[in-house]
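Changelog excerpt

This revision adds worked examples to the README so contributors can see how folded entries look when concatenated. The first example is reproduced verbatim below.
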Amino acid sequence: MKAYLAHKFYSDGRNRKLIEDISESLKENGIETVIMARDFEDWGNKTYSPKELMRLSFKQIDDCDILILEFSEKGTGLGIEAGYAYAKNKPIYVIAVSGSEISTTLKGIAASIIFYSDPKEIGKKIKEIII
């Protein structure tokens, strides 16, 4: 299974370890990830025009089985990616740190919402839901 892992991007890399831990947890549970910041932007070392970045993002979502949306922090890009995935009938799994607020709109399109305290538990939780 292949998942597009969407997350809020920070050029200073403040959430890079979190995203890497989530990706590793998913990989350990048989879920390959595509992460734009890691796989295309080299964690901020490579830049694209906004139009090109969205084109690449949509192509990657098209090529994935599911969208996993890390929504501990809100972001406009996350909403765009979620809306696109929903329009393409891709299951959307929202993950967020326990206590995070999830919008009503996102709740309406999510296949499941998973709260976590340790990012290393996400892969197992998602695998249990999907199987």
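The second example, added in the same revision:
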Amino acid sequence: MTPRQAMELAIEKRLDLVKIAPNAKPPVCKIMDYGKYKYEATKREKESKKKQKVINVKEIRLSPNIESHDLSVKANRTIDFLKNGDRVKVSVRFRGREMGRTELGREVLDDFIELTSEYGAVDKKPKLEGRNMTMFLSPKSNK
């Protein structure tokens, strides 16, 4: 129908004439209550945001010559983070002469993985970047 007929029909029904595909030949229009449509669209958007889960990244710092009790305390803290659904970045910082013994840091991280293996899985394996060796743990999804 012609645009004028469509506009008259929309006015008669007390609704809005909305162009859906303005670039089509001929343009496609729809008669609807535009205010109600916008309201429902924002409502759907808010609902979808409620269902999303925000994942935080927490960080735990270790040293290559950490004692076993200190390591277990850090592991327990990491387990709390993993239970809450957060990802954890575990980093070992090397200072001075410790840079020559990076294998100690890898051993510390391997022990750390064993302590937290029940609740978390390794996302990124330990990697040396500058003076830090970092890895990422994520919570296990079978809970």
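Reviewer comment on example two: The helical segments are 3-13, 34-51, 68-83, 102-116. The chain has a mean pLDDT of 88.
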